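Appendix C: a fully annotated inverse folding record. The material below is reproduced so that readers can follow the format used throughout the book. The structure is listed first as tokens, followed by the designed sequence.
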């Protein structure tokens, strides 16, 4: 379920078109922690952030007459968080962080989804976080 918010600004529409035409995908932020990230604390933090900062609940919907942001009211955090275990030990090929970033930059967000916002979180080996989102958000 989603509720209508507002039409896109010119700059937001520019990023929308860049993604749609496959000229641009997303941007990311990476953090590595010295300890494992407790999942219960992670989900508590995500609930608080998505409540306090509504832009984390945005999705773009396109109709014949307009392209607008809508706030999603019914999506599950587990659908936007991905867990990757032992990425450095599970294969003979040891990916460098740049390779992981390159893979993420190939991901394009799908618009008009009623159950997923325009961001994702990838947890690697329980102590690294990669946040990535459609540039239309910021």
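Designed amino acids, in order:
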């Amino acid at each position: 379920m989603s509720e209508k918010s507002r039409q896109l600004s010119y700059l937001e529409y520019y990023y929308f078109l860049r993604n749609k035409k496959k000229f641009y995908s997303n941007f990311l932020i990476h953090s590595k922690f010295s300890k494992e990230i407790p999942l219960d604390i992670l989900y508590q933090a995500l609930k608080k952030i998505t409540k306090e900062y509504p832009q984390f609940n945005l999705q773009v919907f396109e109709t014949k007459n307009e392209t607008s942001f809508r706030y999603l009211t019914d999506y599950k955090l587990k659908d936007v968080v991905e867990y990757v275990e032992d990425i450095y030990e599970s294969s003979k090929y040891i990916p460098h962080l740049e390779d992981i970033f390159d893979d993420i930059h190939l991901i394009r967000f799908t618009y008009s989804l009623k159950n997923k916002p325009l961001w994702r979180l990838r947890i690697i080996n329980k102590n690294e976080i990669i946040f990535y989102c459609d540039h239309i958000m910021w």
